[in-house]
Specification:
By secondary structure, the chain is of the alpha+beta class. Among the domains are: 8-46 and 208-348, 3-Layer(aba) Sandwich (Rossmann fold), CATH 3.40.50; 358-461, Beta-grasp domain (Ubiquitin-like (UB roll)). It is 18% helix and 28% strand. β9 (219-225), α4 (229-242) and β10 form a beta-alpha-beta unit. α6 (299-310) crosses α7.
């Protein structure tokens, strides 16, 4: 096995010239980013602040039952499963694979493996009868649910390994969990969770996936900070395995060598694909030999990397994953270099400290004679209506949870997209959006955790 030093290793194993990018990791995903005030604006256009969405008496689309998958021979299961991922010849349709009704099932923990002093990889066993429901694309995530300290807590974690199935049709789901300072769920997972435990795991969700139909000759670049590496591990493994001519380049930023998650796995990938995988480790609190591999990031340093090391004109697809400041800085810099927005995929990682736990909806009292909004929602083919006082400024998700505790949600912060629904009647205002694509907004989809009624009656459909 090759030496595990953190050099900026280019294709062919040669040490690249000095370059730098950083997003140190304090607690969860990030530490010292030297970000100018101008980059503090929220990402656009996929992110919208107070988006107005209207649907006046629009007919509700029929909720057709999801067709059952035809049984496959066990010998063909693995091949067919991999073909439905990045660059597969028989790739699943984006709508079928990326957006489906989120459901929880209890899965057994197969392994808890330490990655660093503050991070673990948790692997769940997926029985054959649930394998289709847990089929996923590299880059997607699952939500985990547990009762901790008297409260139900849900946290979303990215899947960190490429899809695979055993001959008997069973599979596994692996996620990386970094302990956040003050984070109840992540601390419990790092210290208490063990093999043999059962945990509620939601079916895979998310759109942080490749849009490339074929990978031959493609150049994919990813920029990650801290635990933002987790979805990129699955993407890198799949991109490199699916084609003999694809190239993957990773800029991975941490505080120090001890904070690097999946250090051994990245080195093994480099050993396996020495000419097609380029790794650039950047440390913010540990001195590197190359000046640009040390210290804090700013627009000038990132621009230098793009001018000298990566060359954006050769890149077919970009993936950005980490804290808001890093993602925003990278998006701004790529835009300034002329990179089309549609070539850039990004996902925000946040810590789980000081999180609001929606559980069954915060209590809201409806007083007699008070003006209310009528919120109708459809879930699993059943429609329910709840009255929401105008004075409560209640989100659609909170109102729905008061009468249907099984309404899907995970982060409740506008990041994961689990609570997505389509407005079929009325007007709503959406405060934050870090999950929906522009085309989804145009079709009337909203994040119900961030959406508030602005008309007397609003109808949303979780089934479409």
């Amino acid at each position: 096995m090759a030496a595990r030093n953190l050099g900026s290793v280019g294709r062919g194993g040669a040490t690249a010239p000095s370059r730098d990018l950083d997003g140190g990791v304090d607690g969860g995903v990030d530490g010292g980013l030297d970000t100018p005030p101008s980059s503090a604006a929220r990402p656009a256009p996929a992110v919208s602040q107070v988006s107005q969405v209207s649907r006046r008496s629009a007919p509700r689309p029929a909720s057709a039952p999801r067709p059952a998958s035809a049984p496959r021979p066990a010998s063909a299961a693995a091949e067919a499963f991999l073909a439905a991922t990045v660059g597969g010849e028989a790739a699943a349709t984006p709508e079928a694979s990326k957006r489906r009704r989120a459901r929880f099932h209890s899965l057994e923990v197969a392994e808890v493996r330490p990655l660093t002093a503050d991070a673990v990889e948790v692997t769940f066993a997926v029985p054959a009868e649930l394998a289709d429901e847990y089929a996923y694309q590299p880059g997607q995530y699952v939500a985990l649910r547990a009762e901790l300290e008297g409260h139900e807590r849900r946290r979303s974690y990215s899947i960190c390994r490429s899809p695979s199935r055993a001959a008997d049709g069973s599979g596994t789901i692996s996620v990386g969990i970094k302990r956040d300072l003050g984070g109840i769920f992540s601390s419990w997972a790092n210290t208490e969770l063990k093999a043999g435990d059962a945990l509620d795991v939601m079916s895979p969700q998310g759109t942080f996936t490749s849009t490339l139909e074929a990978l031959d000759g493609k150049h994919v670049v990813a920029i990650a900070a801290g635990s933002g590496i987790t979805p990129l591990m699955a993407l890198a493994q799949t991109v490199l395995a699916r084609s003999e001519t694809s190239e993957f380049e990773l800029v991975y930023t941490n505080r120090s060598t001890l904070d690097v998650m999946f250090l051994e796995e990245l080195a093994e990938l480099k050993d396996r694909y020495p000419s097609r995988l380029a790794l650039h480790h950047v440390l913010s609190r540990e001195q590197r030999t190359a000046p640009l591999l040390s210290g804090r990031i700013d627009a000038e340093k990132l621009g230098t990397m793009l001018d000298v090391l990566i060359r954006p004109e050769t890149v077919d697809e970009w993936f950005l994953c980490g804290p808001f400041e890093l993602v925003q800085l990278a998006r701004d810099t790529l835009a300034a270099k002329g990179v089309p927005a549609e070539h850039v995929r990004y996902e925000l990682f946040t810590t789980d400290a000081d999180r609001v736990e929606p559980r069954h909806g915060r209590p809201v009292e409806v007083r007699q004679g008070e003006r209310t909004f009528a919120i109708e929602f459809t879930l699993d083919g059943q429609s329910s209506t709840v009255e929401s006082p105008v004075s409560a400024n209640e989100s659609i998700l909170n109102a729905a949870l008061r009468v249907r505790p099984d309404v899907p949600f995970a982060c409740a912060g506008g990041v994961c997209g689990t609570c997505r629904a389509r407005v079929t009647e009325g007007d709503v205002a959406m405060t934050e959006n870090y999950a929906l694509e522009p085309e989804e907004l145009e079709r009337g989809y909203v994040l119900t955790c961030q959406s508030h009624p602005t008309s007397d009656r609003v109808s949303v459909d979780y089934d479409v």
